[in-house]
Amino acid sequence: MKRCPPPKVNFQGAIMKEGRHFSALVLGLALVSCAFAAFAGELPDGVERIKFLDYNHVPQKVLVVQSYSTGKFVKDLFQVIKGINEKEGLSNSEVIKLHIVGSGGDPISSLGISAEDAKKYVEVNPTFKSSDQWIQDCMELCSAKMTGSDRLVPAIFDSCRGRGLGGLPSALAKLWGQVYFKNPSSSQAHGDYGGNLEVTPFDDVMVAGNTITSPCKSYLEKAGYAGRMFHPDTRWLTVGHIDEYLSFIPTAQAPGGYSIVRADPQFALDLIAKAPESDFAALDSNDRDFLIRVKQTLNARMTEPDAGKGSEEADFIEMNLKIADIIELNVGELKNFIRKVNNDPGREFAEVAWPNLFEGSNGPRPSGCHAYLPGVVNLTVVGNHLLVPACHLPPFDKIIEARFRAQGNIVHFIDDEPYHDAMGEIHCGTNVLRDPQKLVVNPKQVEAVQKVKEKFRTLHAVTAKLH
């Protein structure tokens, strides 16, 4: 089911909540002027720039909407959040809370969460209710740099999506006392939604798919991202969001402090071809039967290149191979863009390919596409923990877990059926409040690990020459 363009809604402003440690006067001016600045495409008074927070910033809250359709997912998500807190030994101000936007009734009791656990790990939004599950799309929980200060303060960028969550960004800005930015575009286009606005750790390069509207793009450039915005191709996707095929995972093991994670349909097809039929057992019967036919076609082509020509399976294979080329091209251009921005032509990157298959609406041509099985790249990052859509295909799951265990990440697979069935995944259905001042991986850690790796490479090269 396609997420339809939302109806237009009226602007709702936000005011400053008392009791913050940063300048109430400056922030108050920013918020009071916001209603006027947003429409004019200007920054609020007292604000120098907007800065989106990448996944390397320490998580404080994971936001989700609890409704009839998402109840099981939210319950599973709670168990993961609780487990992360316990495993990491987090306490007091370090605790990561699950912030639930309810749709009616008491979410705590309906989810079966004990009073003790709820007190430790859960908070229910006291002012807003909705059953609209796309909490990533309505906003970016970001930060603002105030004029005359180097300190970043919490902020919210309202994507102007409307629908059931249309009033949530301003409600949270008021509840939490945050600077409030509003997308000046009134088109409510998918390209301006939070799932299409990502930033790279350390480099602070905004990666926004080319489905972004001109007013939104211009506003973000003026707000601090001029010359720092890269626009990969997302027009071949139905929803058109960059989080459907690209993500950035912080790790000291990678040059620059993060890995570029990309969907790789060709890799997925290779795994399908080699998988025993028993590996497809947990899939829906339609998916299982279709992928077994895809497997058979791939294997037949090893001796007969035209095997299955003109069939649905052949179109599926051809389309995914074309998508693999599109993604590879865009990732290559992104890396060159980052090199140019940093004036570092020799910059190296860690790139991780995850198996991901897409289905489309135009035969072998990539258009109107979305994830066939749950799109594993469309994940949520919580510190060094990765909340990944469960695709119920062992060859995929094993590869994902192994590749990220090697760089210090812990993978949690969660069934996200209510999102996947509506062309979204875990990232689309969650949002994360992060601390603008605290990093998961700091530059010194990255530098230290990379120095050790360079010494190892040098030693290995010398040893190889001696032999």
Description:
By secondary structure, the protein is an alpha/beta fold. The chain has a single domain (24-268, 317-451), classed as 5-stranded Propeller (L-arginine/glycine Amidinotransferase, Chain A). It contains 14 helices and 19 strands. It has a 4-stranded mixed beta sheet. Strands 4-3-2-19 form a 4-stranded mixed beta sheet. A hairpin with a 5-residue loop joins β5 (139-146) and β6. α8 (265-274) packs across α9 and α9 crosses α10. It starts with 23 loop residues before the first helix and ends with a helix.
Overall shape = globular
Gyration radius, to the nearest Å? 23 Å
The count of β-strands is: 19
Q: Terminal Cα separation, in Å? A: 60 Å
Q: Reading side by side through the largest sheet, how are the strands ordered?
A: 1-5-6-7
Report the CATH C-level class: Alpha Beta
Q: What is this structure, in a nutshell?
A:
It contains 14 helices and 19 strands. With 467 residues, the protein is an alpha/beta fold. The chain has one domain (24-268, 317-451): L-arginine/glycine Amidinotransferase, Chain A (5-stranded Propeller).
